[in-house]
Amino acid sequence: MNNHQHVPAKIHNFSLAFQQMCSMVAIGQTKSQDETLRELVLQTLVLLPEEKISNERDLTKIFNTLFGLQIADHEIKFAIERLISEEVIVPSGTGSLLLSEPIAKAVRVNIDTATALEGRVRDGWSEELNTNYPELSFTDSWLALRNYLAGAFLRHGIQAVALLDSSFEMDHIHSQSLTELLNSAVKDIPSELRLNTKRAISNFVAATGHYPERSKYIAQLADGAFNYFSLATDPKVAEKIRQNLNPITLFLDTNFLFGILGLTINPQVAVSEELIRAIHQYKFPFSLKRHKKTQDELLSTVTKYEGDLSQRHWSKNISRAAITSRFLSGVEVKYHQAYIETGIDVQSFFRPYHHADVLLNERAIDSYDEKNIDDQSQQRIATLIADYEDFLKAKGRDKPYKTIDHDMTVLDVARQLRGNAKSTLEAGALVLTCDYSLYAFDWEISKKQGVEPCTVLPNLLWQVLRPLIPSDENFSQAFAQTFAIPEFRTISSGSAAACSKMISIMAGYKDFPEETAARMLSNDILIDQLRKAQSDEEFQSFVDAAIVNENAQLIGENTMLVKKYEVEKIEKNEISRQLADTTAMARQQEEYIFTEKERRVQAEKNATQEREERQKAEKQAKDEKDKRTQAEEKLSLTFAIVKAVLFGVLAISLFELLVYKLPWSWLKTHPNSYGLQGSFGILLLALGFALFISKWRKYIWIPIVLPIGLIVLQLLGGPN
Q1: Which of 61, 103, 199, 514 is 20 to 30 Å from the Cα of 307, by its Cα?
Q2: Helices 212-230 and 138-164, interaxial angle, to 10°?
Q3: Would you list the DSSP string of 122-190?
Q4: Each residue of 228-250: pLDDT tens digit?
C-alpha cells in the first residue's frame, strides 16, 4: 500500500464543486492529496446516505457528477482500503460502505459548522444590503456575489497549485483581473442596478477586516479551492514541498517593501506583513533579499513623493477628498491619512524612510548587490524590457521606463539563480511582488519560453504555507482581504500621476470645497483626459473646465436646494399652522373633555345623592307601612278574637238551651252529662276561632281534636 502510484485527478467543472463548497471547506487545511481525497470520501458518504455506495466505481461517478472531478478508480479504491483498515469505513451486510458512528458524527459537525458559517455571513450581508442598497434584490445580489467568488477562487486555486507544480495546465481565467471577474458576475443584473451591485460586492470583500466570520468564510473558501485543485497536481512534487521546503531566496519587490513599511495602500499589505512575520516565527528556509535597484527605487520614490507633496500646503478638506480616490498612489494616500489624523508635515512623515535600509535590516531583509552585469545579462534584460512593454501596451497599462527596467532586472537575477526543478517553489529563487501586471507577464512569458516562472503574489505563497502554519484569526483576515477589489494600485501609473497633479492644483486654491474635490478625483472621464494631456497648459485647462463644470453643477444644485428650501419652508409654515390649529383644537377638546368630566362627576354625585335620599324615603315609607300594617293586623286580630269569642258564647248558649228544651234525656241523664256539655262547649268555641281567625286555623286542630277525644271517652264510659 505504501508503494501506491498516484495519478493526478482531472478537473472539468469547478462551478459544480463551488456549489458543494461547504464539503471542500469542511475538509480544512489538509497537508497531502491522500488526506484531501480521504476527507472527500468521508464527506460524500455523509452527504449522500441514500445512495448505497458500495465501491470505488460508485464514488467515481459521484465525484464526476457532484464535484466535476475525474479521479482514477484505483486512487479511490486505495483511499477506501486505507479507511477500512483504519476501521473508519465499515462495510454493511448489504455491501454498502458505512462510516463508523463517531467518525460520521464528526464529519456531520464539520459540514454543519461550515454551512452555518455561510448562513450567518449570508444573513449579515442581507441586513447590510437592506440598509445600504435597499433597491437591490438580495437573492440576485447573493447569486452575483457567489459567481464572483467562484471566479476569484477558481483563479486563486489555479495560481496557487501552479506554485506546487508549474506543469499544471493553467486556464486562461488565471490572467483575468478581479475587476473583469466582477463585471462578468453582474452581467445578468438589470443595467440600472449593476453599478450598485458591483459596489455592494466590492464592499463585501473590502470590509472583511471588520467581520471576523466573513474573513473566516472567505479564507475557508480559498482553502477549499486550493485543496480542490491540488488533487490535479503531481502528488510527489506537492507532498515533497509541503513536507520539506527547500531553501528559497525571496527578492522583495518595491511595492512589497512599501507595504511592510506601511507606506502604501493595497489589499496585499496586511497579508505581506503576516507573511514576513510567519517566515521569521516558523523559521521557513527563506532568505529575504532586496536588490540594490529595489532599494534605490524605494528611496527615489520616497524622495519624489516627498518633493511633490512638499510643494503645497495641504488642507484637511483636500486630504479627506484625496483618500477617497482610487487613482491616487498608495504613498500619497498614506500621507493624507496621517495628516488628517495627526496634522504631521510632509518632511516629518517621510524622514524615517530616508533610512529605509536600517528599517529593512531590522526585519532581516538583506541587501543583494549584483557584482557583475555582463553584456549577455544586459541583452537578456533588454529583451525582457521590450517584451514587458509590449505586454503592458496590449493590456492598456503604462509604467515609467525606470520602473520597467527595475522589474526586469530583478526578474532576470531571480531567473539566473533558479534551477531546473519541476516546481516553482523548488527552483531556488522567487520575486515576491504585489504587482499583478509583473506577475501575469512573468507567467505568460515563462510559458512561451519554456522556463519556470519566478514571480509570486503574497497571498499565493501564503496559501501554500497555510497548512504549515497554525490557524490564526489575524492570518485569516489578512488573507481574506487580498480578494478585495479593485486591483492593486500601480505606483507611477499615468492615472496616479494625473490624479496627483490635479490634487496639487486643488491645494493651491484657498478653501477648495471637499465635496467638489472628491467628485473630481473620482471622475474617471476627467482622469482619463488628464492622463492624455499633452502639456501643462492643456492639463490646467481640463482642470479649470472641470472646476467650472463642478461649480455650475453646484450652483444648479444650490438653486435646487434654495427652491427646495423655499418649498420646504412653505410646507414647514403650513405644517406649523396646521400644528397650531391642531394644538388649539386639541386644547379645546381637552377643555371640553375636562368640563364634560367634571359635569359627569357632578351628575354622578347628584345621582348618588338622589338615590340615597330616595332609598331613605322608601325605607321610611316602608317602615310606616309596616307599622300601619302591623297596627291593622293587630286590630283585625283583636276584632276577630272578639267575634270568635262572641260566636263561641252564642253557640254554647244556644247548645245549652237546646239541651234543656229538646227531649235529649240521654244527655241530661248521662253520668258524664256535665263533662260532655263542657267538651261540646270547648269544641264550639274552637270552631269559632277557626272560623274568624284564618291564620290560626293551621294550629286550631289541637283545641278541636282535644274536646272531640274527651267526648268520645266520656261516651264510652267505664266498666259496668
Answers
A1: 514
A2: 50
A3: HHHHHHHHHHH-TTS-HHHHHHHHHHHHHHHHHHHHHHHHHHH-TTS---GGGGS-HHHHHHHHTTTS-
A4: 777 766 656 555 555 667 788 99
d(CA 16, CA 660): 143
Backbone angles phi, psi at 429, to 5 degrees: -150, 145
**Quick one: 33 exposed, middle or buried, by C-beta within 10 A (0-12, 13-18, 19+)?**
buried
DSSP for 429-452?
EEEE-S-HHHHHHHHHHHHHHT--
Higher pLDDT, 456 or 675: 456
CA-to-CA distance for 285 and 262, rounded, in angstroms? Answer: 25
Of residues 172 and 534, more confidently modeled: 534
In whole angstroms, what is the distance from residue 263 CA to residue 256 CA? 10
Determine which helix (DSSP H) or strand (DSSP E) holds 580, and give its type and residue range: helix 536-661
716: how many CB neighbours lie within 10 A of its CB?
8
Look up residue 239 and give its three cell numbers.
Answer: 507532498
Helix axes of 138-164 and 191-206: crossing angle, nearest 10 degrees: 50
Check if the beta carbon of residue 164 is closer than 8 Å to that of residue 238: yes
Cell numbers linked to 66: 457532484
Cis upstream peptide for 663 (omega within 30°): no
pLDDT tens digit string along 62-94?
A: 887 777 777 888 888 888 888 888 888 887 777
Q: What is each CA distance from 450 to 167, 282, 414, in whole angstroms?
A: 10, 34, 16
Tell me the residue type at 431. V
Contacts for 649 with CB less than 8 Å, ≥ 6 apart: none
Which phi and psi angles does 601 have, rounded to 5°?
Answer: -65, -45
Rounded distance between C-alpha atoms, residue 294 and residue 360, angstroms: 12
Which residue has cell 405644517? 575
Structural domain spans, the chain = 1-244, 245-495
Q: Identify the helix (H) or strand (E) that includes residue 273.
A: helix 269-281
Q: What are phi and psi of 718, to 5 degrees?
A: -120, -170
Q: How far is CA 447 from CA 132, 168, 216, 393, in A?
A: 45, 11, 34, 19
C-alpha cell recorded at residue 420? 531546473
Coil/strand/helix, residue 10: strand
Supply 129's cell numbers. 444590503
